[in-house]
Write a structure and sequence with these properties.
The protein has one domain: Maltoporin, Chain A. It is built from one helix and 20 strands. The protein has one helix at 3-29; strands at 32-44, 57-71, 75-88, 96-107, 114-126, 138-153, 158-171, 179-193, 196-209, 217-229, 233-246, 251-264, 268-280, 308-320, 327-340, 345-359, 364-379, 386-398, 403-416, 423-435. The protein has a 20-stranded antiparallel β-barrel.
């Protein structure tokens, strides 16, 4: 193993220790602290998600969730992590452990002349977008960032700022996609009122890949930002232009935007997120949560080659309690378009999900969920197109001592033009969870 790989592993271990230190410290420091321990077991009738030669197998999952927050006059801390252990009775896959979640430490306040923000996140991903959602096909991406900020007030409503950024991206299994990012953002902020703000910002980031010579590039972005927090409506709008310049002289550019909108009334809640940006297979979506909560790919690995990607991502979600006093319903529609900027390739994902939760009594609930996901490639073959349908039903009962019981049944059906990508899996099981 060369020195670069050793250094990469050392960084990963240090990042892991940082997340564990934050995790362990929260019970002592937290203003609010929550946690849970659970053990689930289930029986699959197709453990390898195979077209033929199906294997019935018992599968176990042990999970620990912990989170909290702490705030004083100088420091603000937040953390939310989940550690899981998967085991397979007939060795259809090797046992695997994952750590997923995020934390942040803000030293100083946003109105102070100086502050330092440290963020850490870890997310489980499929190694490629057309992979089956098996544990053996998953990787973990870890991002550690340090962002110091200097600001100066020009008036009671105007300020200027400069924010530095140093980030390390590390993968647990595929070190080829490790990268570092160093840069800065300068901006001007104007408070229109106590609930509205306007900003102008410009950013430059130098991106270096540990194991890809010639793939390094510089990213630049300029944007206008407007945000407001009304009684029922909160939104943040960013509009601008971004460009990249690589060491090989390849330049790409285009518009960029980011929309985040949330509306809440007595019965309904509507959320809209949409963005367009140039990214790459190492950074992807920067560890944002998956739409449906399950592992997804986030940047394509084409023959172990890094690609810059222009990504358009959108989701519209509606949630309501209007049906009855004891129930919740939700519907979510989402899409992701990815255009690979060097190779003549693109991928499109379209999905819809819906769910219904009914409270049978104060401690007992039953929930039903269904969803469909379609992935289509164009241009040269990136992978296999497919349609994926998932449905589940779950019954849960909460005892007064923090213990809860779960019983569930799930079905997953995938169709594809590739015969070895088709499968049907039924999974039933149950378990216990203790919340503290």
């Amino acid at each position: 193993m060369n020195s670069n790989n050793l250094n990469s592993k050392n960084v990963r271990y240090k990042n892991y220790l940082l997340s564990m230190l934050l995790l362990v410290s929260y019970p002592v420091l937290a203003n609010e602290f929550t946690g849970s321990v659970s053990a689930l077991t289930g029986q699959s009738d197709n453990a390898r998600k195979a077209t033929d030669e199906k294997l019935e197998e018992r599968q176990d999952e042990y999970r620990v969730n912990i989170g909290g927050n702490y705030t004083n006059s100088a420091v603000k801390l937040e953390a939310d992590y989940s550690a899981s252990d998967y085991r397979f009775a007939k060795d259809s896959q090797e046992s695997e452990q994952f750590l997923e979640g995020s934390s942040s430490v803000l030293i100083g306040k946003e109105h102070h002349p100086v502050d330092l923000l440290i963020t850490h996140s870890r997310k489980t991903l499929l190694r490629s977008s057309d992979e089956k959602a098996l544990v053996k096909n998953q990787d973990e991406r870890e991002i550690l960032s340090l962002s110091p900020t200097l600001r100066a007030n020009l008036s009671s409503t105007d300020s200027i700022y400069i924010t530095g950024s140093v980030s390390q991206i590390s993968y647990t299994h595929n070190e080829l996609f490790d990268s570092t990012r160093n840069g800065a953002t300068v901006g001007w902020s104007h408070d229109l009122s106590s609930i509205q703000a306007f900003k102008l910002a410009a950013q430059q980031i130098d991106v270096e890949f540990d194991n890809f010579n010639g793939a390094d590039y510089t990213y630049r972005r300029a944007e206008i930002i407007y945000g407001a927090a009304l009684r029922r409506l909160t939104y943040n709008l960013k509009e601008g232009y971004n460009e990249t310049e690589s060491q090989l002289g390849l330049n790409f550019d285009g518009p960029t935007y980011d929309i985040a909108l949330a509306y809440k009334s007595g019965l309904h809640e509507i959320t809209l997120i949409s963005s367009q940006v140039i990214t790459d297979a190492s950074l992807g979506g920067a560890n944002m949560p998956s739409v449906d909560g399950s592992p997804s790919s986030d940047g394509e690995r084409m023959d172990d080659r890094l690609e810059q990607i222009e990504r358009l991502n959108s989701e519209l979600r509606w949630e309501s309690i209007f049906v009855c006093d004891n129930c919740n319903v939700f519907v979510s529609i989402y899409q992701r378009d990815e255009s690979y900027l060097i190779a003549d390739l693109s991928a499109k994902t379209r999905g819809v999900a819906a769910g219904f939760i009914y409270r049978l009594s104060k401690p007992a609930t039953i929930s039903v969920r269904t969803g469909k996901n379609n992935l289509t490639y164009t241009g040269l073959a990136l992978g296999n197109d497919y349609d994926l349908r998932q449905s589940s039903i779950e019954y849960s009962y909460k005892f007064i001592n923090g213990l809860s019981l779960k019983l569930f049944a799930q079905q997953e059906k995938r169709t594809s033009d590739s015969p070895d990508q088709r499968y049907l899996e039924n999974y039933v099981g149950g378990g216990l969870e203790y919340t503290f």
